[in-house]
Write a structure and sequence with these properties.
240 residues, alpha/beta, two-stranded antiparallel sheet, 7 helices, binds glutamine
Length: 240
């Protein structure tokens, strides 16, 4: 951690905060506090400078216009690139995931991404809407992903990143893989919000940020109930 408290930045709540993705901030802060870690939360609007000294940066989903504007402002600001160079954790969801790559499509135009992840996004034949599930890369030691997706883009991974998961329901990147990660940067199409539905993923980010090998377990009864209920819904929908 960079200071005595865990500093979490929610990037551009005025642009990138659809489908309840701000919940990811609440979950991370709460799970850190429950482990006795002091937490400092900074919500940085798109007309403000991004501090480069935080431990975790969160990007949420957004419609095409706000996504394109958000990427432009982050490129002009440079703070996120400095933070990544210093080893900060970045977690991006949907629009916030796409814009970490080299390019993405918004309103029919190819837009420059931040080039922090080796991936690019274009448009798919249909909008991907519904449950998203998959087996997460075993190296991350996290149980299967459970989420909800709603996006028009499709994402193509380069050799410099690993897929976050293999898709078992939904589309994710392209119907085969979902999300991507490299170092302490991780992106997903999962809303829900993702970290409420996948508490082990929240703890992975907290471990990356703090350097802890293990964190004391928490009571995840409610999250597990939701995961079980959603798994059953996905299985029921797949039945002929
Ligand atoms: N605008 C992007 C797309 O449709 C991202 C959507 C989102 O963040 N939900 O692919």
């Amino acid at each position: 951690m960079s200071t005595e408290s865990l500093r979490i930045v929610w990037i551009y709540p005025d642009l990138l905060s659809t489908y309840g993705d701000r919940g990811n901030l609440l979950i991370l802060a709460r799970r850190a506090q429950q482990r006795g870690m002091p937490v400092e939360v900074l919500e940085v609007r798109s007309d403000q400078r991004l501090p480069a000294t935080a431990d975790i940066y969160l990007l949420g989903g957004g419609e095409d216009g706000p996504q394109a504007l958000g990427a432009q402002r982050l490129l002009a600001d440079g703070g996120l690139h400095r933070a990544v160079a210093q080893g900060s954790v970045v977690f991006g969801v949907c629009a916030g995931y796409q814009l970490l790559g080299t390019s993405f499509f918004a309103k029919g135009t190819r837009c420059a991404g931040l080039e922090l992840l080796d991936l690019s996004s274009d448009r798919g034949p249909t909008r991907a809407v519904g449950e998203l599930a998959g087996e997460i890369d075993p190296r991350l030691g996290v149980p299967p992903l459970s989420g909800f997706e709603n996006h028009g883009g499709r994402t193509h991974l380069g050799p410099g990143v690993s897929p976050l998961a293999r898709v078992s329901a939904g589309i994710g990147n392209d119907g085969v893989t979902e999300g991507a990660w490299r170092g302490k940067l991780l992106g997903t199409y999962s809303h829900g919000p993702a970290l409420a539905r996948n508490p082990a993923l929240a703890d992975l980010l907290l471990r990356w940020a703090t350097g802890a090998h293990q964190l004391p377990p928490l009571d995840d009864t409610w999250a597990e109930r939701l995961r079980t209920e959603r798994r059953a819904a996905v299985a029921a929908a797949a039945r002929p």
